[in-house]
């Protein structure tokens, strides 16, 4: 029995796979309580985040259908959640419900859901186990807000099915991270539908226990109608449940009020007729939330082209395996490899199109990884590849132990004794294969060949019939030369089966002599399969569909606003969505509630009829705003409406990169992580910054527990144009000093043993402000850092980046007389890197400088 200060614990009443619940009393007032603990003695940080989150959210909700916790107490290495003991029991332990009992329960649950959504809370884990019912009063309450969100929308991160947030059997398709859709309040309707299905049929809609197969069922398979399982379920109720379980949020109920109205109709009809015939669902489904649909408009042909490419690469269809295939004496059937290029202007929808490929990847049990080149970090070699492969390693680490062991064996076989070379580039690889011995040192072309061969072999481990691999590299217009060579190797020079490499770039930002275009020419000469999808702006018809769906009105009624939006945005999807959001935030689009009460219900907003119903738009004021404008200027104006603190933090984040973590941001913001997260919160609520894991929830309230995060929350900008707009808020005269300050703070706060891992990020910031450094010691330190960065880039065979670092280092040294060894080292390294990169003229200049200034014959040699 546990001992918790201030409480008398009486008995253990529940022992699940992850949690324990005890019954007891609070000593101060003898109130009966339930105490919930995590079962493991040393919980992970993610488990602590969720435990803390359920207290943070539930204690702020004053709703009759929600169990409000009494306290969150520190207990050993974790938390203890204290709740009132009011005699409720889990709905999962109850016998099958009659139709009448079910409807009474469902109506109560929907009332509670309506309250949650009114408080802008998404529950994200509705299931019978999280629903309590009082055995005498039949009153129903909802518990467990561990996964709940206070953001209007979350963008799920792709993870292994075994570690997805929520309970897999009740998971909405968009929660899987494989639907090209965000998570919003309508996600709860899907889980509610699965719960209703189970309560009425006694079974779940999808019977498989295989995680990946279950994910595929949620996103692509229609369930057996509940009335086919239990013929006693009336037809009208059957259809209501299936509407809740629609695959896309747009096809579900759009408001708890609309669902509640239909459930009350079902209850009245059942009470008066003993049956519920089919009726028009959603007749009063009024949604007052401004939501822009996430489906793709006008892209059917392009989606079909992309999916066909994956089918070609993944063919022949693999058997459903979950482990890497074992060696076979007979050669396996081959798929193929292909490079698919997606081009178009910024904001045209390239990333949204590529994300449509998730569904067939799930069917084929493949892996999807992505990386993004950064406009302000172009000197970091392999940045997008490294981002993608680090993500792949994190996905592998969430697989079952036997699967991880199988991958470990396959990777070690492919890399032999050279694993450390890739660990230096992909640190997470060490967590999969363990520490590796130092590799044999070689240099020059031999080093480049070895590195490329290892990278190729490493990627080929994951390109099999059982697991096709899709690598998405975004923003190729900012690609580094080392990455281009690797792309050429993977697609043009070697046979890598079951690989689809997708590259997106802005065709208006490249030119015939751009390194990307030259590389693509070379790849095409090798007879490799290269295809291109060029995305044009949305035509007025597609744009009108988007506007009409957003405002829930007929196409003709949306036309005047569509014309103005098209005039402003030219059919650019990103600009369009941001402009519509701006109109809503400025009150030019609003939801109208005339004072007409419903005669038969008081559970929600009044129903409006005729022209006064629903969304309204002030066309005259919109017309004044619809003059053409630059999207970056438009986004910058939006950012300037944020608080000064949030603007400041976004400027710093933009300097760091498209992705950034809280620890780094807190260093350059010069505040502690909790204050930093608080000042960033407004940008998250506006959807301008997207959290990349649930760790951000730990900072929603002041940190009191002794176990501080071991993992820093990771964020990314909604879009490059948002990052660019934030960067433009920094006055031109202050950009250099801002980068210099960031570099100094990062260097000062990075431990010596971690310096090599973060060398590129630090040196890039310092180099952008190097002209402002006047102190001789600091200039020498930066020259040494550039030497270290250049050597690391050279080891990765990123010779162009290495040349840039060595050249930058040479601008900071005092000269041969004052800093002979450092100057000599920089000249030697720069000359070698230039030779390896084919830059012979600067190579000769640096060699001549050595010959002129070398102190010894050996130095000249």
What does this molecule look like?
The protein is an alpha+beta fold and 861 residues long. The chain has a five-stranded antiparallel sheet with strand order 1-2-3-5-4, covered by helices on one side. The longest helix has 20 residues. It is globular and about 105 Å long. The relative contact order is 0.07.
Question: What descriptive keywords fit this protein?
Answer:
861 residues, 18 strands, 5-stranded parallel sheet, alpha+beta, 5-stranded antiparallel sheet
Number of strands: 18
Q: Per the principal axes of the C-alpha atoms, what is the gross shape?
A: globular
Strand-pairing-aware structural class: alpha+beta
Major β-sheet strand ordering: 1-2-3-5-4
The amount of beta strand, in percent, is: 5-15%
Distance between the termini: 76 Å
Number of helices: 33
